[in-house]
Specification:
Shape: globular
Largest sheet: 5 strands, parallel
Radius of gyration: 19 Å
Order of helices and strands: HHEHHHEHEEEHEHEHHH
CATH architecture: 3-Layer(aba) Sandwich
Structural class: alpha/beta
Number of helices: 11
CATH superfamily: Thiamin diphosphate (ThDP)-binding fold, Pyr/PP domains
Strand content: 5-15%
Helix content: 40-55%
Distance between the termini: 62 Å
Strand order of the largest sheet: 1-2-3-7-6
CATH class: Alpha Beta
Number of strands: 7
Number of domains: 1
């Protein structure tokens, strides 16, 4: 092995599983975009195309009992943690068979059984809850960790700073995962943050351990996430993951991206984590065709399952509301 060659920490079979999961997320979201543009899905939709390695790598590093809070870009995290595509698609169609029983839609995906404590449409809105969960684990001395996913734009909110401050003070079992795609909706990183190109500096003010990650390399994401989880699980305090990734599409489905240069979009496409892993594994055309067919069938079945699902009753609209 040459000095420059990276030592592989995962077996080829495991990496092929990661490739399948990333491709499933990609094709799922492409199908979601197609159905949304056809007028079949209500509300707004946000896809994480280009960021699949973050979801797969982090979620694969989680242990049974760990929990996470997601963002408005939640499909990938939810699928990567094991929620069945049928349940996710049914939720997007607003059906009772959905993972949130039709109450939440795309931006409010829940699956408590698999540790998904909910996606949040408010930027940075899920971060405090994961500090609370991490505090509970610390107080009970449970070897569990709470993971907070958020984008770089969320690091400008008050709740972000309050959460990191308290997490470090209380030594909560929390891992903060900043999916830094350098876009806060339509605002480029250099316009919204003085440390936009090195979000690990956000942790310095709180004397928090931070780790930088190449978010387009699923093996590295898994390795660094595993390290972060082990540190937080030990009880010494939270960890901040600065995951540099690339958003290949707009902020929302239908976003014309007039604010974004073609060169920037081209660079994002060139950093495609799926293409990268396929080339590393030297997947043949025949193998790729078989994988594509398998994933396509899963996604197509999920759409049919959702369309045939049960519409919620109007009288149930106010159920599960707490005041």
């Amino acid at each position: 092995m040459s000095k420059t060659e990276k030592k592989r920490i995962l077996t080829e079979d495991r990496l092929r599983e990661f490739l399948r999961e990333m491709l499933l997320i990609r094709r799922f979201e492409e199908k979601v975009e197609e159905r949304f543009r056809a007028g079949e899905l209500p509300g707004f939709l946000h896809v994480a195309i280009g960021q699949e390695a973050v979801a797969v790598g982090v979620c694969a590093a989680m242990a049974d009992g760990d929990v996470f809070g997601s963002t408005h870009r939640a499909h990938g995290h939810t699928l990567a943690r094991g929620t069945h595509p049928n349940a996710v698609m049914a939720e997007l169609y607003g059906k009772m068979e959905g993972c949130s029983h039709g109450y939440g839609g795309s931006m409010h995906l829940y699956d408590v059984e698999r540790g998904n404590l909910g996606a949040n449409a408010v930027v940075g809105g899920g971060i405090p809850a994961m500090v609370g969960a991490g505090l509970a684990f610390s107080m009970r001395d449970e070897p569990r960790v709470a993971i907070a996913f958020f984008g770089d734009g969320a690091t400008n909110t008050g709740t972000f700073h309050e959460s990191l401050n308290l997490a470090q003070l209380w030594k909560t079992r929390t891992v903060f995962v900043c999916e830094n795609n350098t876009w806060a909706e339509s605002t480029p990183g250099w316009q919204h943050s003085p440390v936009w190109d090195d979000m690990s500096k956000r942790a310095v003010a709180f004397d928090m351990h931070s780790i930088k990650v190449n978010g387009q390399d699923v093996e590295e994401v898994f390795e660094k996430a595993t390290e972060a989880l082990e540190i937080a699980r030990s009880g010494v305090g939270p960890v901040f993951l600065d995951v540099e990734t690339f958003r290949m599409h707009g902020h929302y489905i239908g976003d014309p991206q007039v604010y974004r240069a073609k060169e920037d979009r081209d660079e994002a496409a060139e950093r495609d984590p799926i293409v990268r892993l396929r080339e590393i594994l030297q997947v043949t055309s025949e193998e790729w065709a078989a994988l594509e067919a398998e994933v396509k069938e899963i996604v197509d079945v999920s759409v049919e399952f959702a369309k045939n699902g049960t519409d919620p009753q109007p009288e149930d609209a106010l159920k599960n509301i707490y005041a």
